[in-house]
Known about the structure:
Layout: E1 4-9, H1 13-23, E2 29-33, E3 46-47, H2 49-57, H3 61-66, E4 77-82, E5 90-93, E6 108-109, H4 112-124, E7 129-133, E8 135-142, E9 147-153, E10 159-169, H5 176-180, E11 185-200, H6 202-207, E12 214-220, E13 229-233, E14 239-246, H7 257-265, E15 272-286, E16 290-291, E17 294-296, E18 302-303, H8 311-331, H9 336-371, H10 378-386, H11 393-397, E19 398-402, E20 416-419, E21 451-456, H12 464-473, E22 477-482, E23 492-495, E24 501-505, H13 508-518
Parallel strand pairs: 1-2, 1-10, 2-7, 4-12, 10-17, 21-22
Antiparallel strand pairs: 3-6, 4-5, 8-9, 9-10, 11-14, 11-15, 12-13, 13-14, 15-18, 16-17, 19-20, 21-23, 23-24
Amino acid sequence: MIEYDVIVVGGGPVGMGLAIDLGQRGIRVCVIERYPEPQPIPKGQNLTQRTTEHFHFWGCEPELRAARTIPQNAGIGGMTCYGQLLTDYNYDWLNRALVKDYYFTANERLPQFATEAVLRKRAAEIEAIDIRYGWSCTGLLQDADGVTAEIRQREGEASDRVRGGYAVGCDGSRSVVREAAGITQTLSDHDRLMALLVFRSTELHQLLERYPDKAFYNVLTPELEGYWQFFGRVDLGTTWFFHAPVPPGTTKDSFDFTSMLHAAVGQPFEVEFEYIGFWDLRFAIADRYRKGRVFVAGDAAHSHPPYGGYGINTGFEDARNLGWKLAARLQGWGGEGLLDSYDLERRPVFASTADDFIAAFIEEDRAFLERYSPDRDREEFERMWFSRNDAASEVAAFEPNYEGSPIVSGPPGGLCSARGSHVHEARAGHHLSPMTLEDGRNVYDRLGAGFTLVRIGETAPAPGAILQQAEALSVPIGLVNHSGDSRYGADYVLVRPDNYVAWAGSSPEEGAKALARAVAFGV
Ligand SMILES: Cc1cc2nc3c(=O)[nH]c(=O)nc-3n(C[C@H](O)[C@H](O)[C@H](O)COP(=O)(O)OP(=O)(O)OC[C@H]3O[C@@H](n4cnc5c(N)ncnc54)[C@H](O)[C@@H]3O)c2cc1C
């Protein structure tokens, strides 16, 4: 008997986000999570504007803001330094506020365990979600009608089976679900062992008071060949995390981590370690995100070094992309191809994130450190160093989009990619820019759980064909009329449930076809 529509294995950030997305749509979800509490490792801190939009739609954005561990008036900017942290060779880095006008909500910074606590609380409020904390998934079988998850109590002997229509592995980079489904991965190994340290030091806070409004710091040295020494604040004044490459074979007891921190900062300071851990620096991407009734999302689908803070944000976008598609299929208004489009949209975006951003950071830093040195030519080094982040191109260029998706009416030859541009014009396959309507509310306040048709100007032809198509296909759709100034550059904008534009144009007949395409019912 199918007890649940969807089994979500792994109640980390991505699994909980997906469960909320589904549960809010009335989809019956069972989450299997092995830990009763979020793990107290302060990773995944840097939350983009797009991620806070998800929290808005998941009904817990104020709670996310309230859970911030750095006071609201303290800055959350970043800084890159040459040689050591305490240096005048530094510049502002990854200033995500540069693209704030293109999103409805502002970016945020808080430790992942705090984010997870917010999501767990929100999920507990939704009746359609059952959560089995303290249970591990040990295997998964699928057949023509559904999936069966084998689960076992983590501390105890009990075992059980849960049956659902679909399963999504949100169980992290060592995903049991991915393995059980036979989904292979492509790995690119950087052959580096990384240490992750969490430590307390009020003295470091005092030393860094000279750089106000900063919450994360990256120290580049030529010896590390483009790999980072990264400091991040966990709170304001006391707790920090740090990651950097360490020699192969390093263990907790075989290495002087205090001296490594002192060298990275540029002077001794008191340090009290709370946690010392390791991971292998590598990129991994699942060769497919779907196999039959099984999907993978978040780190189960892709993992990479935490450079640039893309991991949790990319995982949340997976959840948002898959949530409405699974709901549409289960509720009968999405075609089978809609489920395939999850892989077709999200996998190339991750590949591009890995190549064009994360690996590019490492390669560009390495090339710079090889080419320029204050010891060889100080004047040339200073000119090049201080012009490095002038355009902050990595923030502006990171604009995941689905121009090449088969369910989007994008431009001929379009591709799905993380590389794009921020403009307000509505473009098929791109995130919808916010816009104030005549009544003073934002269009984002009017976006519902289904599709939204934004009609601009009183001269736009009647939308009958699009609305009739929606009725014929049982696609939930809301109509927003706006007759003031518009930044969208089209009479009509058809917005998907994940706030991406499916189509922008002026012909309602074209719009009707685009809607059928957007839910994967033949055109
Ligand atoms: C040092 C560091 C810093 C980082 N900084 C950033 C950052 O600033 N920004 C950013 O976006 N990302 C960052 N990341 C990456 C981010 O932490 C991950 O991308 C994120 O945790 C992925 O979330 P997830 O839910 O997919 O997987 P996970 O967080 O790994 O969650 C998986 C969940 O599944 C559970 N689970 C696993 N196996 C089973 C099983 N068999 N049965 C039941 N439950 C299971 C686990 O207990 C866990 O709760 C950082 C990572 C590191 C290591």
